[in-house]
Amino acid sequence: MTHSTSTSASTASASAFAPGTGKSPGAAPESPVPATRPSALHRLRAWFSAFVFTVPALVLFGLLVLVPMGYAFYISFFNWGGFGTPTDSVGFDNYTRLFDDPVFLGDLWRGFLLIAFSIVLQLPFALAMAVLLNQKLRGRAVYRMLFFAPYILSEVITGVLFSMIFAPDEGLADKVLDAVGLAGLGGDWFAGQDTVLPTLFLVMTWKYFGFHMMLYLAGLQGIPAELHEAARIDGASTWQRFRHITLPLLAPTLRISVFLAVIGAIQLFDLVWVITAGGPDHASETMVISLFQYGFKRYQMGYASAISVAMFLISLVFALAYQRFVLRRDTEGAITTMRGNR
Amino acid sequence: MRALGNTSLSRRGFLAASAATGLGTAALSACGSSDGGNSSGKTEIEWWNITTTQPAKKLWAQRAKEFEAAHPDVKIKIVTLENEAYKSKMTAQTASGKLPDIFHTWGGGVLKQQIDAGLVEDLTDKVSSWTKDFLPASVAPFRLDDKMYAVPFDVGMVGFWYNKALFKQAGIDTPPTTWSGYLDAVKALKDEGITPIALAGKEKWPGMYYWAYLSMRVAGLEAMQKAADDADFTGEDFVKAGAHVEELVALKPFQKGFLGAAYSTPTGEAAAVGNGKAAMELMGQWAPVVQADAGKGLGKDLGFFSFPAVEGGKGALTEVFGGSNGHAVRKGAPDAALEFLKFFAEKEFAEKLVKETGLVPVSKAAQGALTDPNLIAVSDALGDATGFQLYLDQAYAPAVGQEINDSVAALIAGSKSPEQVTRSVTQVAKSEG
Known about the structure:
Shape of chain B: globular
Helix content of chain B: 40-55%
Protein name (chain B): Extracellular solute-binding protein
Radius of gyration of chain B: 22 Å
Strand content of chain A: under 5%
Distance between the termini of chain A: 27 Å
Number of strands of chain B: 12
Number of helices of chain A: 14
Subcellular location (chain A): Cell membrane
Radius of gyration of chain A: 25 Å
Oligomer: heterodimer
InterPro entries (chain A): ABC_transporter_permease, MetI-like, MetI-like_sf
Shape of chain A: flat
Signal peptide (chain B): 1-19
Keywords (chain B): Signal
């Protein structure tokens, strides 16, 4: 969470500053650099006030984030049932068990599938809708609101709703297909080991594409109309304008949206829990569901903590790598600008 | 109602999960219950139960009010949670070492863990005077090392609940008493175009009942006890039990989409039977209530028969698989907690519960209040029982119970063989030993 908010904030400022600053490294020439360096005492005082102002936040962060994280890491080295203090130390057994556990390995594979689906299908769909709703269109505010509405709905309500819609035979989906003579397309939906993941992805798309669409719409608003106008005068086709103006200028937004989609897929829990609880036979289980099952159904807190640590590391490595390699251009602009203004 | 239950469960699940990822169990222990507050000079008794359905919920609250009226210095705080939410919440409570004064229990492995953690009051001497005429089967789950740790208020067993009209339509006059007879009945129903069995595949525990009963019938109760003690379920008889499950699954007897079906939702197992869309379900004594709650209910068409005996098996038709619901008391709870349990167990209130909420009485004194022929059948089967096996997910350590549920679900889905089931269960049982 902290990652996503901080990056989105920095990109927001990046996109705000990027067009103005262009390639120039900040506003160094204009900013009046003091001739003499501040005295040591002055610097100490600056540090002190910074310290005083950040202490409350640091204490909360440490108490509510770092300490529990450290504790989870600690108990991941024990065979612990959740009662009393952990005593049965098992070294790295819980971690080696991860790589033998077909359920956990399956979680990784399913997580990968969901991420791939999201990037290949859901985000392009959201982009298409955003471009469509960025045109002058009668009632476009209504459409925007309608498409964004599912995102506001709680995951649990969504889950209950769709488990009714996709109930085999009796649900709305099968009834509608039946009524239009396409009964053959109906089927097991959430109840089939092969169909559960695609059906779940359908629900996820319904639920989350509106959010990405809104991000893209905001990004599209930031693209100056003059660019399109000039290109049109030069005879560029719609596709060319999309490909060479819209897409490049939307890139920072796209990068953030991919980031959020990936982190969302890694942490997916409540929607799946309500609809399938990970079934049938683990076919829709995610990492967090495995974690919950082992921790709070089987009371194997040590192993559940090992899963949580693995999940944390995956998220962390991804987040850092993504920021370092993909978001670099976006964040760099922001940081240099801020340095220049200091 | 259900959606509400799910909400709290999921929110808690999410909290719990995020706790394990980021916040850790330290945060969970922070939501422990407050101890009996004395700010108003009253003793507060916190009573956690899972009675979410009416009219039982209303009656229970009334009983608490009556107790408060008779004991002006006591205040009873009722906390009602949905089944699964309750289990999750209690896990956290147990971990933090703070249990409510009175809490619902199914006995078995979970209760044993709580006792081992020193959190549960030994009630043996305190309740013996007023629990003398309780059915042996009803107190069995709460007896550990000859000590009694909870007072049952309800007892029951699993058996087949069937639709008499649909059985008749398929030409089955009397319910089967043998496994081969049972399979024939399933075939006859299928031939008639009737879905023979409803099953909630999503929830796993209803499927476990088949394996558990078949293990009881094939291997026998002693072998089951031995398997639990030795943490070894690989015996030939357990493989055979799994093979019998496979036999049944091969007939494709379940409703469409059963792997994703829940138990008590409007499209779930109970509703399928209650609406006459499936001919039977293997379920506990609460089945009629849930069938009528989630679906229309079958009324006079509903019948009950015991799980059939398996030819050549070591178990008998009269051995029952079931459990009871009871109340345990936290170690160090105020005396009023026990007083209340006694008050709750009084004959006229027990009879009232039998009449109005359809539960099976634990004391012989209250049996006269039973009028529903199906519940009389359950009560008789319990009274005549020659052996008793507690629900496996309650009897064994939680990890073992869950592994049985999981493995049998895989067996039914066709992704595990009977041998693999016994091996997986044994592996977990050994690691928990």
